[in-house]
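Run log, item B.
One chain of 469 residues. Sequence copied directly from the ordering sheet:
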Amino acid sequence: MDNGFKRPVSRREAMKILGGAALAGAGGLLSPPGLFARQAGKRPNIIFILTDDHRWDCLGAMGHPFLQTPNMDRLAGEGVLFENAFVTTSLCSPSRASFLTGQYASVHGVKNNFCRWDEKRNITFMDHLKRVGYDTAFIGKWHMPGGGLPNLPGVDQFVSFTRKDGQGDYYDCPIYVNHKLTPNRKPYITEELTDYALDFVNTDRENPFCLYLSHKAVHHDWRPPKHLKGKYDDADLSHLAPESDKYNTWTHLNWLEGTMNDMHTTYRRYCECLESVDEQVGRLLTALEKRGVLDDTVIVYAGDNGYIWGEHRLYAKHYPYEESIRIPYIVRAPMVIDRPGRRADQMVLNQDLAPSLLQMAGLSIPEAMQGESFLPILNDSTAPGRKAFVYELFKDFPFSGRVPAHKAIRTDRYKYIDWETCRAPELYDLKTDPREMTNLMDRPDGNALAEPLRAQLDALKQQYRLVDG
């Protein structure tokens, strides 16, 4: 299908089209409201695919030694793979709310997995898209708060689950369609959610559509589909923690979250669940191709947070370390991407999704959104990115005992962590120490190195209205 919406538009051309009056969006990025809609005469379809606990390096495209993700790799090969993508709170509910609202947890109010989603205050990007004529669907994991399901005014079809406080089950998970309990059509949750997604995209319609597809995978308890279970039983896991690594405790740690398996076995199941997600991404791409709308559709794939697999003698998430806060972030949007197949090293965040999608749909970015559109980076590989961002974690029972609340600043080179209680500050040089093994605060000049980062952290906290606690 050729709707005149294929050729990327340079920033110089955008300025010319707007008569030199391009508006500056959040963070000074180019924000030409209505540009792409006016050129095309039609807004793009949008699909956002979100997985749970998918860390950034678990992709074939990122050089994983054995995990096979050909469909995610295809998205990267035909789009842009952000190699420095992060969440601002590495926890399910806060991160998901940030994707939806374009805001920090301090502002949208979902500070942990038990805080309520404020239906009156929080506005999602789907609300904005619905107002300009999009058909919308939310399919999959909601998990805000405590498993309860919301009423989302910007969503036409809502398919989700409440099992296990909203975490869901891999097999035979009770499904609610528009708040009505509905018999299962497939036993495996990743396939069933994809079936609902296929029903939605295959519907004949005049309007553009926006699909939010949020998988239970790859959250614990890591039960892959039967045809993949055991596929990676013989895979070599030596890449996870080299013997020379002083924090190599892999063979000594037992798993404590959702299963009694050792961490090696659990990691293998994790990878098999991820391959299942990749299979379902492939089904979705095939359906879009058959309908002739693949190149008229913006597709974004991301994880809601990373995951620590034994590094730093830790497991799970919450922590401000790279394994926990970095995520896969892939955008396929041939109508706006310059030089598809490239890697982008600019830093992008989960809250950047909402303003970016709105801008690609030709809408202005609401002032309430704190994220920055990454559309200029898609359109121009030399476009500047942010210089720093704040990571925040609040008290989250029952994990508060081992992970105190904290704020951190992450720049393109350094990370400074300010724990509220129990722990001393930490400072890492990510250029020379990417595994965050050497705390520079232990050096005599540690405080002097940290002082400008503390000042920058305080300034960003004030700018974005971030609170402690």
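Observations after the first pass:
- The domain at 404-469 is CATH 3.30.1120 (Arylsulfatase, C-terminal domain).
- The longest helix spans residues 263-290.
Flagged for discussion on Thursday.
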